[in-house]
Amino acid sequence: MSAMTPAGTPAATPAATPAANDVPARRVPPLGAFNVTLLRIELFRMLRNRRTIVFTLVLPAALLLTVGNQDGWDDKAGAGNVAAYILISMALYGAALTAAATGSMVAMERALGWSRQLRLTPLHPIAYILTKALVALCMGALAIAMVNLVGVLQGRAVMPTGVWVGAAFVTLFCTMTFAALGVFIGYLVPGENAMQILGPGLALLSFLGGVFIPIDQYAEVVRQVAYWTPMYGVAEVARSPLTHELPWFAIVNAVGWFAVFVLGAAWRMSKDTARV
């Protein structure tokens, strides 16, 4: 029976409060909330960006066609000819630019507040970066495929089919360096300034690193500087299936710069995620 107050009315019974053990624990999604749906959304979002399409499909192919009628392209170079050497170089430049642009999208997301919204979800920062890396690989693969398609239609590049396929896959693997660079710059500078830095910067690094001009045509002083640039190592690695030459210091250069950009991106990401 309910207790009676002096006025003769029943007293209210206090509501029962659930025990702390009765509150269900929040489930953490597997793989840090990484999922195919998020990956598909990110990829479609990049494909709807007109500037990305220009970087991915138009610019690399246009560069290959621009230099496509120069003399000396039929000269032998490794297992193929000079045209094949240039084709791999242009594919690397296009994929690097595309991957860096994809990675740098974190700058726009931070400016729009999207990164802050993601921090309120179970999405783990590593899963977020992994998603960006896979999208960058997909976009880089499109750039490489477009350059190779133009090369096939142009008909001047000559190399064995195995070399052609191997060079494409190695080039795609090398673009991870520039995806990490894009993320690093995206966390380092605000908004659209990321691509204003990456665009001219990658063009300059490509000239210095022997992507547009063979490094042995440079003066000795410029050559010594080129050995330390991020483009030199990956360019040598990307062309190694064709040239059958890969100096040890080119491998050290490629691995070293990849480590620098990944660590830089992780450092800036940790600084950014520390703010709620």
Provide the fold topology.
Layout: H1 36-47, H2 50-66, E1 76-77, E2 80-81, H3 82-103, H4 105-112, H5 114-119, H6 125-154, H7 161-174, H8 176-188, H9 193-208, H10 220-226, H11 230-243, H12 248-273
Antiparallel strand pairs: 1-2
Helix pairs in contact: 1-6, 2-3, 2-6, 3-6, 3-7, 3-8, 3-9, 3-11, 4-8, 6-7, 6-8, 7-11, 8-12, 11-12
Membrane topology: Multi-pass membrane protein
Biased composition (Low complexity): 1-20
GO molecular function, one term: ABC-type transporter activity
Describe the structure.
- By secondary structure, the protein is mainly alpha-helical.
- It has one domain (32-273).
- 67% of the residues lie in helices and 1% in strands.
- It has helices at residues 36-47, 50-66, 82-103, 105-112, 114-119, 125-154, 161-174, 176-188, 193-208, 220-226, 230-243, 248-273; strands spanning 76-77, 80-81.
- A two-stranded antiparallel ribbon has the order 1-2.
- A hairpin with a 2-residue loop joins strand 1 and strand 2 (80-81).
- The two termini are 51 Å apart.
- 38% of the residues are buried.
